[in-house]
């Protein structure tokens, strides 16, 4: 029964949003667009690397501010194009010039968006440290602006580096990952998870990660070490993912979740009642709906999961949750989108993000929310193949 459930969920892993939803999607009025001409490679030059490392050493942070209650969202779009070595993970020999022996994160940053020569015990230790930190966090994260929100990465390690070059690295920029970092088909999944773990260990109060579908389905990284070492790495990664938070509340006005809403979601206390860790086999209904339910125009409120389809929710459910929980915006991920982002509903209260430009899409997006409720939308177009 458990394997049947896994196959069913895997089959809809890359399923796009319903066409009827896309037809009703709108663009915010007055959104300004700026095209950034310089391609984003994801590789920091020496000057930028030194600047980021200095910020890290000094722990320079933007002050956290609560959103103004009467503020309404306004948007600015910055369009980027991917450059460099494409989107497939490649191995590049690099000499590390900056010596920071105590922090693996700095070496990963300097090495850039290429295969890193991990030692198995080093990787297991890093994932275990991060798992301990995630285990100590609440099931519902309580965050404040400014913060950048990144949707599905799906093992695209190069694009993870590109996004961080665009948004800025922690601690200067707080970052929330909505899940979907892991994709068993992509060799860069382990590298993505390790990089996020390294950021979390170094800056536990500036990097946040909630659970998605990729973190819930059985984790199967592509072989990298000897079988025993691969098994140890996979076990450490599974423990990390089983302890991830499920939900984030930003400045009491924005809800961030991997996929959807639930008929059991009526207040914040019901989320805190979900006990971790849990697996796909023993997942409570509320958690399953948050991870797998999808928006639809066919119903107004909720429809429970069936044998062939996950649970769904309508815009009446969005309105109810926003009213009952005092929200102005709900941000979700999961579904591939042609433009990387879409605004759904009459009042554009539901935002769907897709952050993997080379996975089932040609363009991706992340957002950065500022205290005055100005939301910067960063898009990244897939790199064109060289002739």
TrEMBL record:
Residues 118-384 form the Serine/threonine specific protein phosphatases domain. It comes from Trichostrongylus colubriformis (Black scour worm). GO terms for molecular function: protein serine/threonine phosphatase activity. InterPro entries: Calcineurin-like_PHP (IPR004843), Metallo-depent_PP-like (IPR029052), PP1_catalytic_subunit (IPR050341), Ser/Thr-sp_prot-phosphatase (IPR006186). One of its GO terms (cellular component) is nucleus. This is Serine/threonine specific protein phosphatases domain-containing protein. Pfam families: Metallophos. It comes from the Eukaryota.
